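Hey, I'm writing a tutorial for new members on how sequence and structure tokens pair up, and I'd like a real worked example in the thread rather than a made-up one. If someone can provide the structure for the chain below, I'll link this post from the tutorial.
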Amino acid sequence: MRALVLESTAETPKIIEKETLSPSPGFVKIRLHAAGWNRRDYWITQGKYPLITLPVTMGSDGCGFVEDCPDNPDVIGQEVVICPSMNWGENDLHQSSQFHILGMPSDGTFAEEIIVPIENIFPKPPHLTVEQSAALPLAGLTAWRAVISRAKLKEKENILITGIGGSTAIFALQFAVATGANVFVTSSSTEKIEKAKLLGANGGVLYTDQAWEKKIKAICPLGFDVIIDSAGGAGFGHLVKLLNMGGRLVFFGGTQGRWPSILPQYLFFKQVSLLASTMGSPREFEEMLHFISTNKIIPVIDSIFPLDDYPLALERTTHKDRFGKVVLQID
């Protein structure tokens, strides 16, 4: 079977032939139709991801059909989505010490077939294509945990989502809109803000503008009950000030670096909560899929490439104009 393998961070990934896989008890073999790219994959190729173990077949997102399952032959032939949360553990509050994300160090979804634990497969939402389903797992689950599990967003609350255009931020927007919240966004692109409005956002501002925090207050003068951020950096101090009394600020990334100094008074007087988050559990993944099916949410796909065009897919993943997921057609 063919697989896209990274053998060294000094080289680009390449397609190689690997031995056909056979599942042991407790595992299933999936024949993959499509797989989704994440920024995580790019950082791995650059050697800028913790605990890199090579060689590895990258990829955390995948959709396909069950080709073999020693424990339950009845699931053979079913179309499934793979939850990339490996060894989460029994505690819903946090992952176990054995936790890892599919695609590092275990082989991932950029291949014609994959072996995963049976508890990590779930039926494909019937209203989605295989490409749309493959766009779901990592970014969708990260957004679900941030918006629903951690922030516990409620109907009619005001929520601010920073950096719209990235897949996780778009999923956060879609979940918030379906919840019935009032959604606002920031971006470095006017075009992306307009696309966010088409998805249900009430408005947005450019975080590259001077005094952007005053502009967001002008379009949402009642302030924010929930803020979702994946950037950190200097702008984080403004986010804290934008929180309402009892507000919740959920963060799951730090691409812009360290936070600035923040006066404690901005936090304790308002009784706000700072909530760290990351990927979620298989239980949350199942809840997310049910919510997506019930609300007929369709993942936003930026572009689709065949497996052989993986260099173009990797390049598009980091392109400044990208809006949504980049997907590989495997089979």
